Request: fold
Amino acid sequence: MIPTIIVALITFIAITVSIILFPSIKLKKSVIGTYWIIALVGAILLLLLRLVPIEEIWNSLTSDTSINPLKILVLFLSMTFLSIFLDEVGLFHYLARKAVKIAKGNQFSLFIIFYLLTAVLTVFTSNDIVVLTLTPFICFFCKNTKINPIPYLVGEFAAANTWSMMLIIGNPTNIYLATSAGINFVEYFKVMAIPTLVAGVVQIALIILIFNKKLIKPLEPQEDPFAIQSKVDLIVGVVHLFVCLVFLIISSYIHVDMYLVSVICAGSLLLYNLIMRLATKKHWRYVTDSIKRLPWELIPFVLSMFVIVVALEYQGIAQKMGEILGSKYSEWTYGASSFVVANIINNIPMSILYSTLPNALTGTTYYKAIYASIIGSNIGAFLTPIGALAGIMFTDITEKFDVNYGFKQFIKYGFIIAIPTIGAALLLLMFII
Reply:
């Protein structure tokens, strides 16, 4: 038991240090994240030391259960492909440009529109994609109009990691925790809709209170020559996403796994593009660029963290941690602890670990623990940049645009906004389940 704890702790600490000090390394023209390499080394070490039988890992990877990490990865990557494709054809940029036009030089209106746009896009696509897409646009726009980008960046990142709780597909942590508990698309939405809505209202009120003086200053709208290159591809992409969402909603009623729904829709979009490009002999840059932008590093990272968690469970350590958290007020113990742990080891490994901790609980106590962990994994993402991979990418983008939004500022605003937001969400959860 002790050697397993030591290897796991060293791995978690090393991942955190790498995210802060050296998040990536450059090899020739490629930039490679260090976090997944460290996780992979930790997993291999556990297997080499025989602290977890390889048969145990193999059985978990080949099991026909909802917690199978391969199914979860397929679901997340195929949904991400649909979202990135829409970004590549220009949907997100187009909507952001429309938001600026509607605001008509009013910063306060622009902030509200950007917040709502982020919220809506996050609900129906993915928080990571929204952050990666809108952050560069906000930085570029604010630089050109000479306004302070911080209110918009804080609002965008906080919104993306709060409204991502609404649907099961909003965050890979939602997918992992919910499917591990056998929660389907509709059941998830019924529970999480109101806590997400209330958390979002509390959050935007706090942000407006903090930045009110900065948002009353006028701005000069800038002309943006951007235009959607292929309206047909855009329409096809939106239709595929819509159909995918519809079938995800009814998947539990027609007895089809969610990962099959998403991978069929992603495959259909890929097939459409292949046929069209062969017929018209035009480029299919949208598809190739979408495939290149997929978070491939997430595969070794998730699988490596899965090995570590299986080892912790095999040695009885996860059970001990579950006993410490207890069964009384599970929404608060699991919600608060997951919120903190996400900012120590990142919310993806936290979710893999927390999917096993409440196994000894039963009934509503168990589901409160799972949903509370989902809330903690999402809202914990904007307490510090370590909380989520999106935070690491977000800080990298702001640095490239010379935006003065460092680690200390991130934590300052994160602490002020995240604590009341998670408090509101967990309070609502108490009365829903």
